[in-house]
Every structure is written in structure tokens, then in C-alpha cells.
Design the sequence.
């Protein structure tokens, strides 16, 4: 069976920032890997040693509510008593290794590439932000000089003070 290419936008829309980390939820990964969410969770429980806390964690009830509120495709979780698991980039890759299906392997490649692309965007953004700060510093420095030039031009445009006219006639 040929697996279709997963568009990067589809994967990007399933990546959230939770607890300061970019993560994907178990439900979304199960969909991408072509397995039921229950099977995905069972695979992680059978291989607990492969999923330390920095690879996978369970959302709190408040985090679950927040995610469900933000994303329409997660409305089915709203009334579920189950709290979803979140997988970091490394957890998503480890999950593909645990599932060992052809589709999981191919999907994990697209997922990892998307995480890499997002990291590149962040890096580019930071470089751009730094360049703007430097430019802003230069403009501030030049602003002072530009203001001084305008003040000098305004002074040159002011009419010269009138000299008192000499009085006509004899002055003692």
C-alpha cells in the first residue's frame, strides 16, 4: 500500500507548544501513523523505558481544556475523561520505532522534517530579531545627528538679526 505524502501544513497544525515544548498529541500521531489511539498508548506502556518525561507526558486537565478550546479537530476530547499524552519530537520518532509499521516509519519522517522546519523558522526569526535590534540602535544614533542637521538648517533659514541702522547726521 502506497502512503500519500503528508503535507507539512497538516502536521504543523497538529503541533502545539505545551510546557514550553513543541509537542503532538497522541490522537493526532495515531491518525498520522494509521493506528487507533488505544493501540498507540498500549505500545508506549509496553515500552515505558523508551519514553522518558522529556519524550512524552500526560496533559493536565487544564491543559486538555485549553487545547480542546483552541482546536476544532479535538472537540471529541472535550467530554472524554481521558487526558491525552503529548509527545515531543523525540517521542514522536521513538513512537514510530515502537509501532514498526511501514506507514508509521514514513509518517515519522514527515513529522521530524516538520519539526526541523519549525526549528529553522525560530532560528531565522531570532537572527532577524537581532538584526532589527542592531538596526534600531543605528537609527537611534543617526536620529540624533539628523535632528542636529535639521536644527542647523532651521538656524540658517532664520533671518539674520537686524543690525541697528546707522543714524543719519552728526553724532557727537
Sequence:
Amino acid at each position: 500500500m502506497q502512503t500519500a505524502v503528508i503535507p507539512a501544513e497538516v502536521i504543523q497544525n497538529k503541533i502545539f507548544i505545551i510546557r514550553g515544548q513543541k509537542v503532538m498529541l497522541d490522537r493526532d500521531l495515531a491518525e498520522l501513523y494509521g493506528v487507533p489511539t488505544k493501540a498507540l498508548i498500549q505500545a508506549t506502556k509496553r515500552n515505558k523505558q523508551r519514553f522518558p518525561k522529556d519524550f512524552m507526558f500526560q496533559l493536565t486537565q487544564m491543559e486538555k481544556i485549553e487545547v480542546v478550546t483552541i482546536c476544532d479537530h479535538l472537540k471529541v476530547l472535550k467530554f472524554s475523561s481521558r487526558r491525552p499524552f503529548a509527545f515531543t519530537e523525540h517521542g514522536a520518532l521513538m513512537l514510530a520505532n515502537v509501532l514498526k509499521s511501514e506507514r508509521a516509519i514514513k509518517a515519522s519522517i514527515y513529522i521530524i522534517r516538520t519539526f526541523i522546519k519549525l526549528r529553522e523558522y525560530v532560528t531565522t526569526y531570532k537572527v532577524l530579531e537581532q538584526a532589527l535590534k542592531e538596526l534600531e540602535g543605528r537609527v537611534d544614533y543617526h536620529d540624533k545627528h539628523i535632528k542636529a542637521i535639521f536644527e542647523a538648517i532651521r538656524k540658517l533659514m532664520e533671518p539674520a538679526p537686524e543690525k541697528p541702522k546707522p543714524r543719519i547726521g552728526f553724532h557727537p
